[in-house]
Amino acid sequence: MTETAGIRLVAGLGNPGEEYAGNRHNAGYWFVDALARRHRAVFRQQNKLHGSSCRIEAGSKTLWLFMPSTFMNDSGRALQVFAGFHKIETSRILVAHDEIDFEVSKTRLKWSGGNGGHNGLADIIRRLGADFWRLRIGVGHPGSRSKVTRHVLSDPDEDAAAAIRTDIARACDVTGLLVEGEFESAMNVLHAD
Predict the structure, then answer these.
(1) Cβ neighbours of residue 133 under 8 Å, at least 6 residues apart?
(2) What helix, strand, coil percent values describe the chain, rounded to 5?
(3) Which of 3, 20, 31 minimizes the C-alpha distance to 154?
(4) Catalytic residue positions?
(5) What totals of helices (H) and strands (E) does the chain contain, helices first?
(6) pTM confidence score
(7) Closest CA to 89 of 172, 181, 26
(8) How many beta carbons lie within 10 A of that of residue 173, not counting itself?
C-alpha cells in the first residue's frame, strides 16, 4: 500500500434482517447507511455479490459502499466476492464495525491488525488477509465477557444510540480525506477527543 492510495470501498458490517437492525453489532451498517443518505445514494441488492451496494462521490473520487447480506460470521465471503468483482485491492478497503473495547462516543481509524475477538473481522482476515483499514465504532463493553454476545445483539438505549449517531456523523465528515489517502489528517479529526 502506498501512502496516497486512498479508500475505494467502505464495507459496513452487520447482520441482515429487521430483527437485528437496531443492534449494536450493526454499527457498521449504520455508518454506510449514513454515508449513502448524506450523498442521496440508494443501495441496490446484488444477490450474486452477496450484498447491497451503491456508489458516491467523495472528495474527487468515486467510492463504493457495501453492506454484506451474509450474517456477520460470514462477512469475509461477501467482501471477497464484491471486492474481487470490482477489482479492489484489500489495502484500499475500509471495514466499519462495532467495537466493544471503546466506550460509546469513541470511534477510531486503524490500519491492519488482529480481529480483537470480532467474528466478522476474523472471517475477513481469514479470506483477505489483515491489511485493510478499520473504522472501529465504540458501542461500549457490558463489563463481563459472558455478556458480550447479548450486549452486541441488543439495541443501545436512546442516549447511547444518539451518541453513536453523532460519532458516525463525524466519521462521515472525514470520508473525503480517506478516499484521497490522507489518513493522518482523518485520524487527527477523529481522534481529537
Answers:
(1) 7, 93, 94, 95, 109, 110, 111, 178, 183
(2) 45, 20, 35
(3) 20
(4) 25
(5) 7, 7
(6) 0.95
(7) 181
(8) 13
The pLDDT value recorded for residue 192 is 83
CA 55, 57, 63 angle in degrees (round to 5)?
Answer: 50
Please report where in the chains the cell 472525514 appears, as a residue: 174
**Which residue matches cell numbers 466493544?**
100
pLDDT tens by residue, 33-88: 999 999 999 999 999 999 999 999 887 789 999 999 999 999 999 999 999 999 99
Residue 1's pLDDT is 41
Greatest alpha-carbon pair distance for the chain in Å reads 45
SS3 state at 65: strand
DSSP letter, residue 3: T
- CA distances to 9, 109, 157, 177 from 57, in Å: 12, 21, 33, 12
Which residues of the chain have a pLDDT value below 70?
Answer: 1-4, 193
| Residue type at position 109 | L
Instruction: Decide: residue 138, CB within 10 A, 0-12 exposed, 13-18 middle, 19+ buried.
Output: buried
Instruction: Report phi then psi at 78, rounded to 5.
Output: -65, -45
